[in-house]
Amino acid sequence: MSDKNYDVIVIGAGCGGLTAAACIAKEGKRVLILERHNAPGGFASSFVRGRFEFDVSLHQLCGFTDTAGLGDTRKIFDYLDISDKIKWTKIPDCYRLISKRSFDSAVDVTMPTGIDEFINALENYVPGSKPSVTRLFKLAEEIEASTLYFSDFDSKITLKSLRKILKEHGNFVRTAPYSVNEVFNALKIPQEAQNILNAYWMYLGVDCSRLSFIHYISMVYSYVKYGSVVPKLRSHAMSMALAGVVEDFGGEIRYNSHVSRIIFKDGQAKGVILKSGEKIMCEHIICNCSPTTAFGKMIKAKDLPERAIKRTNARTFGARGACVYLGLNRSPEELGIKDYSVFITDTVDTEKQFNLMKSIDTNNALAAVCLNIANPDCSPNGTTILCLTTLYTDNCWANVEPDQYFTEKDMLAARLIANYESATGITIHNSIEELEVATPVTFARYTATPQGTVYGYYGDDWDGIIPRIMTEEADCDTKGLRFCGGWDVQLSGMSSAIASGRNVAFATLNDIISTDKGDLSDEK
Amino acid sequence: MKNKVVVNSSFKDIKNFINIPSLRKGVIEEAPNSPINANYAVNSTANFLHPSIQYLIVKSVVDISRDTKAYILGPDASLGTAKLAYFRPGQFISVTLEIGHAVVTRPYTLCSSPLRSLDDEYVILVKKDSNGFVSPFIHNTWVKGTKVKAAAPFGNLFYQPLRDSKNIVGLTDEYGISSFLSMAEAINDGTLDIDLTLFYSARKKNEAIMMDRLNELASANNKFRVIYVLSDERADKCERGFITKTLIEKYVSATRYSVFVNGSTPLYNRVTPQIAELKLEQKYIRYGLSGQIKNPASLPDFPKDAVGKTFLCKVIKDGETLGKIPCSAEETLLVALEREGIAVQSVCRSGECGFCRSKLTSGNVYIPKDVDSRRLADSSFGIIHPCCSYPMSNLTLIIN
């Protein structure tokens, strides 16, 4: 048994785990991170092939603004004093959306950042959309203000509190129970404008008939109003900076350290057991891995509260990811690439598209990111980094036989490249110097995420961000064991995972204070 | 409120809002209380393809030449490896060995076809270097039944249909022949669809190991041919001299081809200027692992004043100081660690894979530019790959 005492153990060094540990260390508590892999970051990582370095997954980081104190990610990084230690580069536009194959009318639009610019561009594409879309952005502004209030919201509503809430946050309350489609329709936004506004749904993996309006519009508003950034040296720079904070404040990070069991007895977390057999006792554990993994593999069912088991069984997994990383031996100008981020879909009907993404054979959707457009020095002169990402909304990669796997990978790459070429008219296949393919199997390999899921639990209507926030404390039914990251209350995405890490850190610090108080009263 | 938004009716909207927690609780209440399924097919595939350890057993040993033996390895089910991981022709496995006090790894390219791994067999060739540390140990101790610990197949020198030309020109010597033999076997059994023209450099005909098998494969299949290039003797049906641009052009008529190079450092040094003469796009030139640099002090930018010096490296793991170990400026930190019996994860030993990723918290190291494959952010945060880092002062190193 380790003779060291830790106030908190964090399992997993993804964005959530790193942020949680950094906040805890900064608040003066002893924290230990145990990470299976040999590097920090989880999905916020990068890898080198030849003369290229690819970001594993980051497209756009939201909530990090130029202005100190504005935007949640910015606030957290300011607090941790790393905002200026990471070199950032700004993303020029919001996105381009191409939907040509269409069961419906073809779409090819480029949407700028800036609220006025965005609304005007939309009016240009869909004449008459301006009044309703302007109203939408006003609503989004109100919701941004209300979100702060509701992130600390207590689900016990009294008549008195309801009156106050309605007075100050009425629009939030009235739109919170609904999906994107329901609120957009209520605002009478023309369908063609909705089609364009819905493009970001792929970042959350829930189609707009089920996706929480509040969740979605908060993200859209952040991207449009504040724009987005990526670290110049890839998201790995962010992970290393966060890991640096942990270590600077006396925290420890152990890599290649695989937690096999969480000791959870009599309704209380007591410590962890590593695969090596080492046992480390600690009564405050933060899990950056999925509750499914923690409850299904690391804790015996008989030790768990019934509700934790039922809740886990009720949930389904969000989207599984796949990505083709291309190092091209021509410059973006030579290739004709002008856009940073392009969404390419079969249809602008998000529900139809969601269903097409259930199978490898019917999925032609992708998000293409050309890093050089935002970060021209990211690869040697005369070369380009292009990443094509797609999502699967079912376990289609579960049926691939291991000896067919490499062939399937190559077929996926060929498919995404062909789809990119036909949608954009840009030829890339003869310029490929480096090519790497990540499938759900790859993500399962590196992060141990169940089924290669990249988006945590599916944000179904009953399990979206609002219901998760409103039942947050009730759902915290494993004493001494909390969760953070993409599987947590804020759902997936790096900025959400970072925010979740901060939230769980302070919740855990409060747990420690109440435990200490408890100990004191015991002594009396 | 100026901008009052109502979705259904104000009353219904508020009622729906208040009901959110109970709706959620209702769904959870209806879910089964059965054990949580934690076995996922995608994760099983990942574990099968990329196991952290493969427990192998030597099935048989075949003498290939005066100084080379072939080891046929199978899965050791008694230790939990039921099946061998599948791979791409050209990939290697990293073998972990305990030799006396030392714990070392060595990458060995699989020379057999992936198809054969489905029948529970990997084949590796081990050439004995009498002055070496590992190869004599393997030759002396590995017999039928020896248990061998290996990592999952790894490496980037394989045919990628979207990137490479289907016409592959292989340049090799006896140190790199395994990768091309594996490709030739896979062409022959129909699992690899390429045309491979292999230039095999050796001093003498009898030093070109695996010649019989290569000739067999070449005559069985018109998609594979091999040209022996002998530097020290004339021989029937062999070229005399070294692999040159002229020689490549004599045999390769395709206008587009990819050049794959795998072999010893002298081979790399000889063929690199010849390949440059071919004026190919960089994407059509791919190298295998650079391997351990034999004489780093001969590199032009190696700090001359460090030659012959020995430093002390303080090694920390999991917050504990493991000790201060001596390390020579002309030897990688990984070798110094291994000699002291300090187990560090390592796979490629060439700077590429990053398994040995460690943090340098004080002191300086020399990293040859050509083999520095660290992430940009890693470089800026003091991370090094000990397998290609040479100490230039006393150091403090945190290993994982």
Fold and architecture overview:
The complex is a heterodimer of chains A (524) and B (400). Helix content of chain A is 40%, strand content 18%. Chain A is an alpha/beta fold. Chain A has a 7-stranded mixed beta sheet with strand order 7-6-15-16-17-14-18. In chain A, strands 9-2-1-13-19 form a 5-stranded parallel beta sheet, with helices on one face. A 3-stranded antiparallel beta sheet of chain A has the order 10-11-12. In chain A, a hairpin with a 4-residue loop joins strand 11 (268-274) and strand 12 (279-281). In chain A, helix 6 (180-186) packs across helix 8 (213-226). The longest helix of chain A is centred in the last third of the chain and has 30 residues, at 494-523. Chain A is globular. The model of chain A has no long low-confidence stretch (mean pLDDT 94). Chain B has 3 domains: 46-150, Elongation Factor Tu (Ef-tu), domain 3 (Beta Barrel), CATH 2.40.30.10; 167-287, Nucleotide-binding domain of ferredoxin-NADP reductase (FNR) module (Rossmann fold, 3-Layer(aba) Sandwich), CATH 3.40.50.80; 296-399, Roll (Ubiquitin-like (UB roll)). Chain B has 11 helices and 19 strands. In chain B, the strands form 4 sheets. A 6-stranded antiparallel beta sheet of chain B has the order 4-3-6-1-2-5. In chain B, helix 6 runs parallel beside helix 7 (211-220). Chain B starts with 9 loop residues before the first helix and ends with a strand.
In a few lines, what is going on in this structure?
With 524 residues, chain A is an alpha/beta fold.
Features:
heterodimer; A: 524 residues; alpha/beta; seven-stranded mixed sheet; 19 helices; globular; B: 400 residues; Elongation Factor Tu (Ef-tu), domain 3; Rossmann fold; 19 strands
Total helical elements of chain A: 19
Biggest sheet statistics of chain A: 7 strands, mixed
Task: Summarize model confidence as the mean pLDDT of chain B.
Answer: 96
**How does the overall form of chain A come out from the CA principal axes?**
globular
Strand order of the largest sheet of chain B: 4-3-6-1-2-5
> Spans of chain B with pLDDT under 50 lasting ≥5 residues?
none
User: How would you sum up the major sheet of chain B?
Assistant: 6 strands, antiparallel
Number of strands of chain A: 19
